[in-house]
């Protein structure tokens, strides 16, 4: 486990402290979770962008042709 020194505006620190208390957790755990969520979101964006670069409209249309042309069930509308 690593240690970092972080400077926060007092207002943000207060909100983090209040939220951590409300969630019955430590500020460290709250910040760690928030950072993990942010990193995950950024990595997901990058993954999707890289996958999009490999996309093929021709292959997509070919796959769509294999889908049966049937009316949707009532519960799907």
Question: What is the element layout, followed by pairings?
Answer:
Elements: H1 10-22, H2 27-53, H3 57-65
Description:
The chain is mainly α. It has one domain. Helix content is 64%, strand content 0%. Helix 1 packs across helix 2. The termini are far apart. The relative contact order is 0.06.
The percent range for strand residues is under 5%
Radius of gyration from the alpha-carbon trace, in angstroms: 23 Å
Number of domains: 1
Write down the secondary-structure element order.
HHH
- Average pLDDT, rounded to a whole number, is 95
The best one-word shape is elongated
- Class based on secondary structure composition and strand pairing: mainly alpha
The major beta sheet can be summarized as: none
Helix content: 55-70%
Low-confidence residue ranges: none
């Amino acid at each position: 486990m690593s240690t970092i020194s972080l400077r926060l505006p007092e207002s943000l620190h207060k909100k983090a402290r209040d939220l951590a208390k409300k969630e019955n957790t430590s500020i460290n755990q709250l910040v760690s979770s928030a950072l993990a969520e942010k990193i995950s979101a950024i990595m997901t964006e990058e993954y999707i962008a890289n996958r999009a670069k490999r996309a093929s409209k021709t292959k997509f249309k070919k796959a769509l042709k294999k889908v049966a042309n049937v009316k949707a069930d009532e519960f799907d509308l």
